[in-house]
Write a structure and sequence with these properties.
This protein has eleven helices and twelve strands. By secondary structure, the chain is of the alpha/beta class. The chain folds into two domains: 183 residues, Rossmann fold; 125 residues, Orthogonal Bundle (N-(1-d-carboxylethyl)-l-norvaline Dehydrogenase, domain 2). The strands form two sheets. The protein has an eight-stranded mixed β-sheet, sandwiched between helices. Helix 4 links the parallel strand 7 and strand 8. Helix 6 crosses helix 9 and helix 7 packs across helix 8. The longest helix has 22 residues.
């Protein structure tokens, strides 16, 4: 089975390192910049939950600056998009070149709209919904730190492929230790992850703290209230969500499981990179406006993260 990972930042590198250990997976990893160059030249080291090394003989590492190698074109059974929000369209177009005629794609990127973009480029029949709650960050080029174990969820979208189509990948993810499950409600799956992201990422980023600090009463109250604003918007869009009590339990559970994790938004702000606020809290604000629902907490957090990034200047 041939699997490609596009956008090999923290999460993509984690999935690459773990999938490279699965015997029946022929892995292709497409990166960029210093981290991508380091992987292509010297391999990838994973630390944290496990300690392992992936040599460049165990996976095919390529660089965006060089382009796709002809041997990879049209040959992939599955493509995992793991880039930042602004890269989804570009990576979806790369996926269209890499996928075999019977291949499938999924996006593990945070936020709303990624599956829709992939479906527009590739066709609804080739795209799964997907989310991940594994915690990862990159301490240096060529190294990924697995900060907390979570789960990977693949889901069905209207007119999209089903569980039978996903089963070979689900089996590989299970062998890799990435704890996969299948959902018949892909839209709800994505929204539930978004609600966690809008509650955790901007507050942890602005406070400059690890995820676990948000379990303190004042910060948790702010995070949960932000989540409930998003849930109101989702329910207005007829998304199937669990009760508020269940959402609160899930938020506590994820904060506990990833307590030592530095969320991606905090890492982005510290490194002067563009954050994903536009597909998280700002997306909630925009959808709320269309639905006539006020989302003041999400609006404030979006404005503060955007202003802080602009003040620091892009990297």
């Amino acid at each position: 089975m041939r699997v490609a990972i596009l956008g090999s930042g923290s999460l993509g590198s984690l999935y690459a390192a773990l999938l490279s250990r699965v015997s029946n997976v022929d892995l292709f990893v497409h990166g960029r910049g210093l981290h991508g160059a380091h992987m292509a030249a010297e391999g990838l080291h994973i630390e944290g939950e496990i300690d392992a090394f992936v040599s460049n003989s165990e996976a095919f590492f390529s660089l965006d600056e060089v382009g796709l190698p002809p041997v990879a074109v049209g040959s992939m059974d599955y493509v995992l998009l793991t880039g930042k929000a602004g890269q989804t369209l570009e990576l979806a177009k790369l996926s269209s070149q890499l996928l075999s005629p019977t291949g499938f794609a999924l996006s593990l990127s945070n936020g709303l709209g990624h599956a829709e973009t992939c479906r527009h480029v590739l066709g609804p029949h080739r795209v799964f919904a997907a989310t991940s709650t594994h915690g990862a960050w990159r301490p240096s080029a060529g190294v990924v730190h697995w900060a907390g174990r979570g789960e990977t969820v693949l889901g069905a979208l209207p007119g999209g492929p089903g569980q039978d189509d996903a089963q070979p990948l689900l089996d590989a993810l299970e062998s890799a230790g990435l704890s996969p499950t299948w959902s018949s409600d892909g839209t709800g799956t994505v929204w539930r992850k978004v609600l966690l992201n809008i509650a955790i990422n901007p507050i942890a980023a602005l406070a400059g703290v690890e995820n676990g600090e948000l379990l303190k009463p004042d910060l948790f109250s702010a995070a949960f209230s932000t989540m409930l604003e998003g849930a109101s918007v989702a329910r207005q869009e007829r998304v199937n969500l669990p009760s508020d009590e269940h959402l609160e339990h899930q938020l506590r559970q994820v904060l506990t499981a990833t307590s030592s994790n530095l969320c991606s938004m905090l890492q982005d702000l510290r490194n002067g990179r563009m954050t994903e606020i536009s597909v998280l809290n700002q997306a909630i604000v925009e959808r709320g406006e269309r639905a006539g629902i006020a989302t003041p907490l999400n609006q404030m957090l979006s404005a503060m993260v955007t202003a802080l990034h602009q003040q620091q200047g892009p990297n």
